[in-house]
Amino acid sequence: MHSEHTFKQYDAELEALRGKVLEMGGLVEQQIVQALEALVKLDSNLAKEVMVNDQLVNALEVQIDEGCSQIIARRQPAAGDLRMVMMMVKTITDLERIGDEATKIARTAQKIFDEDRMYKPRFNEIKSMVALVREMLRTALDGFARLDVSKTVEVARQDELVDEHFRSAMRQLITFMLEDPRTISMSLEVLFVAKAIERIGDHAKNIAEYVVYMVKGKDVRHISVQEMERETLEP
């Protein structure tokens, strides 16, 4: 009876931590949305809210990390449970970095707002990139919640599309700067934001890959999309 109670308590601890990870993921997704809106509308208050939320994200990372450390010390998990704990530790690291990238975007919005320039950069062209990375993050977190690897390849393909968008934006911005040096400052700011969005996509892809490691015990980092597809389809 005591043993059964202990197992139930152990499972409850793991589920509580998983719930905290998903809470952190929801907060990070909100940061992404608010950062883009702050940028497009040059909304100073919204930019500040993103920065405040980043402190909450950081606090959740510390809290979850401590919880994982306690489980390892007290429960000494093995096999699937150990992979679960490791997956959570890795996932919160990527979520925290996504929050950092969203905060960089918010700071760019704040800087442009504070300087009150006559000519402001146009960020409309990167909206499609943000929509893609937001969908990637949502899909990756859904896979985490359900322990489902079926959409991992889709996330990897979306990451390649985000990379294509970034390269296209970079080529366009370089052309603008060469044709008119007055656009250099504005173009660099757009490029800075585009790079931050591209990095968010990389972190979302990482999270999807950790789910594969948890469910199948296979490390699919640094392999091609085709190889990943084979690994996820194998029983």
TrEMBL record:
- Please state the protein's primary subcellular location: cytoplasm
GO CC aspect terms? cytoplasm
Q: Which residues form the PhoU domain?
A: 21-108, 126-211
Q: Say if the entry is tagged with keyword Signal.
A: no
Q: Name one GO biological process term.
A: negative regulation of phosphate metabolic process
Assigned keywords, A-Z: Cytoplasm, Phosphate transport, Transport
| A Pfam family hit | PhoU
Localization recorded for this chain is: Cytoplasm
The transmembrane residues are none
Instruction: Explain the purpose of this protein.
Output: Plays a role in the regulation of phosphate uptake.
Please describe the quaternary structure of this protein. Answer: Homodimer.
PANTHER family per record? PHOSPHATE-SPECIFIC TRANSPORT SYSTEM ACCESSORY PROTEIN PHOU
The Swiss-Prot or TrEMBL record describes its family as follows: Belongs to the PhoU family.
Q: What is this protein called?
A: Phosphate-specific transport system accessory protein PhoU
Organism annotation: Methylotenera oryzisoli
Which gene name does the record give? Answer: phoU
